[in-house]
Predict the structure.
Amino acid sequence: MLGCGCMHFWSSLVKRPRVLINGAFRGQTVTGQQRYATEVAKRLLVGERIATREKSPVGTIRKSKVLTWGWALMLAYLPRLRGEWLLTLTSRGPLTARRHMLVVHDLFILDHPEWFSTLYVRTHAPIFRSQLRSASLLIAVSQPVADSIRARFGDREIVVAPNAPADVFSRKPGRSVDGLLDLGLTAKKYILSVGSRDPRKNASALIRAHGSLPSSTQLEFPLILVGAGASSAFDTSATLIETGVRHLGYVSDEILAMLYAQARLVVFPSIDEGFGLPAIEALACGADLLVSEIPVLRWVCGQHAEYFSLADTSALVRALSLLIHAPSAGTGTPEERSSYATERFSWSTTVKVIENAIADQTLL
């Protein structure tokens, strides 16, 4: 009993780390980074291990990208007034700040500036470099991202806390297909690809590959593209060949889960990714998945997806033709794919990793 009393006394003397969550992501369209920020912030704010609060832009500020960036830059001054640490969960954060913990989703603006507009690179790249150099703690969303940071900025400690599929994407046998009728689709009779119009998403290559299939196959298995349109951040000078392709735009999570589960094949042909959230969402839904052969998708999908080489221009056409008619048994059953995705990647585990990293950092 004495030992327990002493432990309780000691723990009462140790204050919980105090963290201010940068809520600059609030109000943005939910894609990969915003999904990460939303899921992590939701769990941190109700957790008991870390004392957290969130500061978010409101009103006119939230509606303006420029004002939101200005607001995020000013966050450097708020935590120091209350002895807090600042946690930035997306790319919008202060140029430099004391006790700053930064989640890094990718290094694309530094490694591939050609994918972005000139204005975006000139305004955002210097800020991002400064954040990476000055942050007290870096949190990478995948091991390949952590490796890229070290390769560019030298060997330093980086915590890996990956993305995860939301609960809505967990496989549910017998998931309703009624919504497909509203979209004019038939279960297992379409190819699905999810992503924005960013150049690295490589949608043009997929559209060309689908267009190279026999016309009868194109009619039987139309290509369905889901995702937001082009952003001002990216160079959109390239023109997509869109004959015979349907663009559904941005859809709800419920509809997206249905589309994943009922697709004949989900294709994710990205040139590069920080994590590749649609790939793990598709696996969580039990979908047959074809992805580009890049390190991060190998790290994420393992043996539960089929791969095609970006170096071989005809590889995607061959893979589509084969997998549409003869699904691969090597990637497992839908149940095995779903179990892999939801057991290896979970938001609760990711938040525990972040909480541990915060606790370790604040004790230094």
